[in-house]
Design brief:
Helix content is 29%, strand content 27%. It has 9 helices and 16 strands. Helix 7 (310-332) packs across helix 9. Bound molecules: zinc ion. Zinc ion is lined by residues 182-183, 189, 198, 252, 285.
């Protein structure tokens, strides 16, 4: 036997979190490392390539709902090792990124996948996540299996992977954005005191946002409601899960007793409100289910489950990151913003455990001028344009990570 080399990098633990429509895999690393991840078909596998590592995760717990049949790992070629997860069925990775260590948590790789069929390019190439570059044509052994990944349990080598163009592969995946027009049907939301209703403004602005996002060719968009109907808050969150959204944007407009106050603002979820006005706003937005006679008890249970989960922290960081970026882009596009335009509180509609979620209050219907503006297609086009800029920046950043 050759003496076993010790590498600086080690995989210390692998965990799975199972959600209604998604599995989240977290790998604890001894230090930050470049990686790349993708799926392979026939047989179905999910692959992670990393610089050579020591496997210190031992026997990994595989919850049956995670769909993992087996885990293998070993060297792929000089400098590169591979972990192969054998899957029950075809999977699609929705996101994969490295989280740098913080407090008592180590550097981690987070990979979300679900059971949609993979949308592959014309050469059958799956989308590749991560930045690790793997040279082809090195001095490593070619095995029989053309698509790579025949690594034994003992952890030794094998065949090369076809060179893949990461940039073009990444470009092929279109993130799914869930746009959520607030209120609707029996619930008009805020009103201008005249004929302008929040539920109509939010629907018109959401349709415009969908149109503009789709016309970039970079995104898919689903609305939680297409017309003037009532949808409970919990149902809106469920719709986002059902479609495996990559980003959730809830669209609203507000009223306030001070008629001179105007400007847009952006909200993220938090247990504690940033200020009293936002606490009241969240209370008001959360009350709509009561107005329609729904019971909120189930919602409370969900909150307890979600906020207790460490995964929520990662989603919440992404939500805040997007919100901060968005307020700058809205400002930069000449949209009048409230003071401290990124605020937070316990909005029920933002409680997805795995989808970064924000709520936009487009302006105040209690302000006569702003109500008139929001009622005009030109202003809604301008608002939507500023949101698209923020969305573009966010996904560019996510892809780089
Ligand atoms: Zn509202």
């Amino acid at each position: 036997m050759l003496p076993k080399l010790a590498y600086a990098l080690s995989i210390d633990d692998v965990r799975f979190g199972v959600y209604p429509n998604k599995v989240r895999m977290v790998l604890d690393l001894s230090e930050a490392a470049d990686f790349r991840s993708f799926v392979l078909n026939n047989p179905e596998r999910l692959v992670i390539d990393l610089p050579h590592f020591d496997w210190k995760a031992g026997q990994v717990d595989k919850p049956s709902q995670a769909g993992i049949k087996d885990i293998r790992q070993g060297k792929l070629m000089p400098g590169i090792s591979r972990i192969v997860f054998d899957l029950d069925k075809t999977a699609t990775i929705s996101t994969a990124y490295l989280l740098k260590k913080n407090k008592n948590k180590s550097d981690r790789i987070v990979i979300d996948f679900d059971w949609r069929a993979e949308v592959s390019g014309k050469n059958g190439e799956a989308k590749i996540f991560g930045t690790l570059s793997v040279e082809s044509g090195g001095g490593y052994t070619h095995g029989g299996d053309q698509d790579g990944a025949r690594i034994t349990k003992a952890g030794f080598v094998i065949p090369p992977v076809k060179p893949r163009n990461t940039d073009s592969a990444a470009k092929r995946y279109k993130p799914l954005i869930i746009v959520d027009p607030g209120h609707g049907g029996v619930d008009p939301g805020a009103t201008s005191g005249g004929s302008i209703y929040e539920k109509h403004i939010t629907l018109a602005l959401s349709h415009e946002l969908k149109r503009q996002l789709e016309s970039t060719g970079r995104y898919r968009v689903e609305l939680t409601r297409e017309k003037d109907i009532f949808i409970p808050l919990k149902k809106r969150v469920e719709i986002a899960h059902k479609h495996s959204g990559d980003l959730f944007i809830s669209v609203h407009a507000d009223t306030i007793h001070k008629k001179n106050v105007r400007g847009a603002s952006v909200y993220t979820l938090s247990r504690e409100a940033s200020d009293e006005q936002t606490a009241k706003l969240a209370e008001k937005e959360n009350r709509v289910d009561l107005i329609a006679g729904l019971d909120l008890d189930i919602e409370d249970e969900q909150v307890a489950y979600i906020l207790g989960d460490f995964l929520m922290t990662e989603t919440s960081n992404q939500s805040k990151y997007f919100a901060n970026m968005l307020v700058e882009d809205m400002k930069g596009s000449g949209v009048k913003m409230l003071q401290n335009p990124h605020r937070y509180a316990g909005f029920a509609v933002l409680k997805s455990p795995e989808i970064p979620s924000i709520l936009i209050e487009a302006g105040f219907l209690s302000n006569k001028n702003e109500a008139i503006m929001l009622n005009k297609p030109e202003y809604r086009r301008k608002l939507a344009r500023s949101i698209v800029i923020g969305v573009d920046k966010y996904f560019r950043q996510m892809q780089q990570n």
